[in-house]
Predict the 3D structure of the following.
Amino acid sequence: MKQLLAAVICLSLSAGAFALEGKVSFDQKGSVSGIVTQLSSQNNANIIPLPGNPKAAKKWTVMVFVNAKNNLESFGLKDVNEMEMVGSDDNINIVAELGRINGYATNEGDWKGSRRYLVQKDSNINAITSPIVMEIPKSDMGSWKYMVEFVNWAKANYPAQKYVLVIWNHGAGWNKDLSRFENRGISYDDETGHHMTTPEMRLALNAIGGVDILSMDACLMQMIEVAYEVKGLTEQIVASEETEPGDGYTYDTFLGPLAKKPSMGSAELAKVMVDAYTDHYQSINQGATQSAINMAAMEGFPAVVDAFTDALIAANDLAVAKAAKAKTQAFYYSSNKDMYHFAKLVSETSANADVVAKAKALMSYMKNSLITHNRATGSKYANSFGLAAYMPTSYTSAYDGLLWAADSKWDDFTKWLK
């Protein structure tokens, strides 16, 4: 998340006890390792829960995994305060886990570890006043298994008909530039040195039974490689193609509309989230990107992309493809390119009728089926259409481990194109 303060940030890149099915107890000073052990020891530990509870009184539960155990700590405190500008009510639950670490912010009592909150509305924008539902002295917010425990805890205690999961932290999308990011991913915990890789995100979403909206308040995460990895496990993905400014999301401006209209569905809320984010940065003249992806359209996407790349290769249109790639909208990592813009440039420059037709078909599918909503502010991002793809100058075999590489021919195409 959060623009390296411009470059460096992304690279640094009910209170009391309760019982789950009468067997697993959690308390305010509970041991997370003990919790995980108890959960895994149950006979039904591998049963995947339903994504939502249609009989729940609340319409939505918004779960925000605020991993501020790094140089983003001050922004994490600020964002929980933004959530308190709206707060939970009769229709929505806002649940947050906030993690902190030594060496950065010292305000709010300079406590360490993690705290879980049922966020309540208050008028104090400088102090978190919501009740601490659980306090965890030692947490590993870079562990996908730990995030699973948080989400399952939130679902068990604050059930709803629909769920949003926001993963808040640094994000690296798909990148091979630095040794620390050999396994690209999200949610870097500087205390433990752990983070979630892209394949681990699928393990996490599968273990929690999916969510209605997966949102990543983090840099560079709106990539086909990331989105395809969690297909079938969420209805919408909201994220940024580019690095995010330090402020990240403005939580009050997306939670406020939800509180006013809790009946909205996933696509409508995803659009609200995109607009809330982009409106804020547009109002302060700061460049930013944000989009929502309709995951139902992901199943048919490989065939459309393969038809386009097959046509390029069959026509031996390498010069056209290379020229288009060089001009395609790129992001913080030059290997991250906007897929729609690439197809658009090919459609405008190729002399081969089949290539042009397949490029236009890909553009149409993305615009009309795949991209729920896209916003970009700032002239630098005029050609950001909502979904980036890995287009490197040299191929890395680590890419082979992704579902997108297995189910599409994009890996073969990038080898041909480089």
Remarks:
- The CA atoms of residues 212 and 234 lie 5 Å apart.
